[in-house]
Design goal:
Elements: E1 2-6, E2 9-11, E3 33-35, H1 37-51, E4 57-64, H2 69-78, E5 82-87, H3 94-108, E6 112-116, H4 127-135, E7 139-149, E8 152-159, E9 162-169, E10 172-176, H5 188-194, E11 199-202, H6 235-244
Parallel strand pairs: 1-4, 1-6, 4-5, 5-11, 6-10, 7-10
Antiparallel strand pairs: 2-3, 7-8, 8-9
Helix pairs in contact: 2-5, 3-4
Bound molecules: adenosine monophosphate.
Length: 249
């Protein structure tokens, strides 16, 4: 069984992002970049399926600037077998990403495509679903448990009301939620080995995809600063302030 895992290069989750001084975008100059956390979970799940003997090959794919090959290499160090980089300096948006993934799905015929439920930069939560619509593959989004057996994958999903389990025929799409697993760290020997694993590079044009952005960012601003709170001595003071200062009761 072949698994395709999508890994996005994003600003590391520990970095406090700031807008550029002209407010046109988030400033990512000299900022630490990493694999999107949900994509790390996707890689981990694929590697566990390989360790269980369910999967035979894992392909990690990233779409973005040349430097996104670092995230593909990280996925290779975590256990993926080969990598694909679709190189573009465009602002790649979910529909273009989903179209490129569809082209790679047609080329590689994976049994399972695992993506993060969302990328923590744009917080779109769209790509997996769009890929599902474009390919007509069944999808199990927000997975907290994944089991593959008899040509099917059962996905337990985290939904508002609790948990839902869907049973999908393969090939299928899974998007990962936080509780699916705890990703491992890459060991130094595996980081070294990853340097020798194969990586193909394409452009969106090679895949027949027009990656021109369709959504325009008008401006990026930090959220308004919140005023510091105060401590009140007792309930009576709280009620008095709510009534006479905040005038909310
Ligand atoms: P989004 O829909 O942007 O929130 O992203 C959801 C998931 O789609 C991510 O966690 C990745 O698995 C995949 N994805 C989105 N953009 C990219 C990209 N540029 N390269 C690789 N995977 C991506």
């Amino acid at each position: 069984m072949k698994i395709l895992v999508a890994v996005k290069r994003v600003v590391d989750y520990n970095v406090k992002v700031r807008p550029k001084s002209d407010g046109t975008d988030v400033d990512i100059a000299n900022v630490k970049m990493s694999i999107n956390p949900f994509c790390e979970i996707a890689v981990e799940e694929a590697v566990r399926l390989k360790e269980k003997g369910v999967a035979t090959e894992i392909i990690a794919i990233s779409m973005g600037p040349k430097q996104a090959q670092e995230q593909v290499r990280t996925a290779l160090a975590l256990g993926a077998d080969r990598g694909i980089l679709v190189e573009s300096d465009e602002d790649l948006q979910p529909l273009a990403i989903a179209k490129m993934l569809k082209a790679i799905v047609e080329k590689e015929s994976p049994d399972l495509v695992i993506l993060g439920k969302q990328a923590i930069d744009g917080d779109n939560n769209q790509t997996g679903q769009m890929l599902g619509a474009l390919t007509s593959m069944p999808q199990g989004t927000f997975a907290s448990e994944v089991n593959v057996a008899d040509g099917r994958v059962s996905v337990t999903r985290e939904i508002d009301g609790g948990l839902q389990t869907v049973n999908l025929s393969l090939p299928a799409i899974v998007t990962t939620d936080l509780r699916l697993n705890e990703p491992r760290y890459a060991s130094l020997p595996n980081i070294m080995k990853a340097k020798r694993k194969p990586m193909d590079t394409f452009t969106p044009e090679d895949l027949g995809v027009d990656a021109t952005p369709r959504v325009k960012t008008l401006s990026v601003e930090p959220p308004a600063e919140r005023k510091a709170g105060i401590k009140v001595a007792d309930v009576a003071e709280l009620v008095d302030k709510l009534k006479n200062e905040a005038k909310v009761i």
